């Protein structure tokens, strides 16, 4: 175990832990005691791997992007998480957690969702496993993310509006936690990123670590070396980045680049660049960096991409930032948008606007021609078509 792995009591450096109300303690404790032995068991691994292959469509390709490489004068590979079933990396985690829920004997699934991506991934798995599914979503988000709301309903899930506060993700999370407190014995709460109380951040990172496991194997086959010079991923809560970095945390010569959403600019008050403007505090049951006022009220984030529109980051990332192991950048809405158009034109791949933030960071890196870079393309851009259209200019 290196200093970048989680400790026995659930910390990365000074970040992490499980700050939960007493009434949630039994649920979280049950998970904490059982998660490693269940998810590392041969029968779990076999079922998880088989569905990752046959249902999700893994392994996803590691694609040498020649024209993008030419543009930045380095060797650039894209890890194609956009080719997963449901169009993003989130399914790796929801599949893992629903298999865990079944083994814990749970018969009802709940989740929170912001833009609806995690809600759709969860509803998909509940359909596959024939489990009832309730997804909490802020009323504001329901109004602006209609297609995902309809997808969840089509898949058989119930979408319950969160009517408090700003009626966005944090309010949906509060509702999901309230539900879990009221249904402690039969219900499993699927969290969508490397956030929440211990053991969620570590559990989600393990499920997403399939990304870096495959990168190692694919890069070795392709280049004769397992290690790239740079790994680049966008960070909302941080799950696709955690999966991308996981098997490289100890390889100090591999530079880990995390890209947050700068929004309109990090000092405009309309941003989601947590490491730039955030301070330590507690959000969703863990100690981490978050955007908050002096008296601890959460500041509403802003990003062009719904998936990065989160006021905190997972505790692993807070620690990678503080320890210097990770290099954190932010890309503005406009930089991400332009990077999305650029990839469409150069490679014929329309990326999710979240992933476009990772691509935008290529312009900030001090690349030299001998560098090998792997950028994780966390999702595809179909869901963002309306945003591309509204912004125009391509
Ligand atoms: C949700 C989402 C993200 C952000 O979530 P992480 O947990 O930070 O990975 C990034 N890209 C896409 C396509 C998403 O749907």
TrEMBL record:
**Has UniProt tagged this entry with the keyword Transport?**
no
Positions modified as N6-(pyridoxal phosphate)lysine? Answer: 90
Q: What class of enzyme is it?
A: lyase
* CDD domains named among the record's database cross-references: Trp-synth_B
For the keyword Protein biosynthesis, the answer is no
Cellular-component GO terms for this entry: cytoplasm
Keyword line: Amino-acid biosynthesis, Aromatic amino acid biosynthesis, Lyase, Pyridoxal phosphate, Tryptophan biosynthesis
Which domain of life does the protein's organism represent? Bacteria
Q: Which residues form the Tryptophan synthase beta chain-like PALP domain?
A: 57-379
Catalysed conversion reaction: (1S,2R)-1-C-(indol-3-yl)glycerol 3-phosphate + L-serine = D-glyceraldehyde 3-phosphate + L-tryptophan + H2O
The record's InterPro entries line, in alphabetical order, gives:
Trp_synth_b_CS, Trp_synth_beta, Trp_synth_beta/beta-like, TrpB-like_PALP, TrpB-like_PALP_sf
Main role? The beta subunit is responsible for the synthesis of L-tryptophan from indole and L-serine.
Give the family this protein belongs to, as stated in its UniProt record: Belongs to the TrpB family.
Q: What is this protein called?
A: Tryptophan synthase beta chain
The species this protein belongs to is Chitinophaga solisilvae
């Amino acid at each position: 175990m290196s200093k970048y792995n989680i400790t026995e009591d659930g910390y990365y450096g000074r970040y992490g832990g499980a700050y939960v109300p007493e009434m949630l303690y039994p649920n979280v404790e049950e998970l904490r005691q059982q998660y490693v032995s269940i998810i590392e068991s041969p029968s779990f691994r076999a079922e998880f791997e088989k569905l990752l292959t046959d249902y999700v469509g893994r392994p996803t390709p590691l694609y040498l992007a020649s024209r993008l490489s030419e543009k930045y004068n380095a060797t650039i590979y894209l890890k194609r998480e956009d080719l997963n079933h449901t169009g993003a990396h989130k399914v790796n985690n929801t599949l893992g957690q629903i298999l865990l829920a079944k083994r814990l004997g749970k018969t009802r699934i709940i989740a929170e969702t912001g833009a609806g991506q995690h809600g759709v991934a969860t509803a998909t798995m509940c359909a596959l496993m024939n489990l009832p599914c309730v997804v909490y979503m802020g009323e504001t988000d329901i109004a602006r993310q209609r297609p995902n709301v309809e997808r969840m309903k089509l898949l058989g899930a119930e979408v319950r509006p969160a009517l408090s506060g700003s009626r966005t993700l944090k309010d949906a999370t509060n509702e999901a936690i309230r539900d879990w407190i009221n249904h402690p014995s039969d219900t499993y709460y699927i969290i969508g990123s490397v956030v929440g109380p211990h053991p969620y951040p570590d559990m989600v990172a393990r499920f997403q670590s399939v990304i870096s496991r495959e990168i190692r194997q694919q890069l070795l086959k392709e280049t004769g070396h397992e290690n790239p010079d740079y790994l680049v991923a966008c960070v909302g809560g941080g799950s696709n980045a955690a999966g991308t970095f996981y098997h490289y945390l100890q390889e100090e010569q591999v530079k880990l680049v995390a890209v947050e959403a700068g929004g309109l600019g990090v000092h405009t008050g309309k941003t989601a660049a947590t490491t730039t403007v955030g301070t330590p505090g507690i959000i969703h049951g863990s100690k981490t960096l978050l955007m908050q006022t002096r008296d601890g009220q959460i500041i509403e984030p802003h990003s062009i991409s719904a998936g990065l529109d989160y006021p905190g980051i997972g505790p692993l990332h807070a620690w990678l930032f503080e320890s210097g192991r990770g290099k954190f950048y932010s890309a503005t809405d406009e930089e991400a948008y332009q990077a999305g158009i650029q990839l469409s034109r150069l490679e014929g791949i329309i990326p999710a606007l979240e992933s476009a933030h990772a691509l935008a960071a290529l312009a900030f890196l001090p690349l030299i021609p001998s560098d090998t870079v792997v950028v994780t393309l966390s999702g595809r851009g179909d869901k963002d078509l309306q945003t591309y259209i509204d912004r125009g200019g391509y």
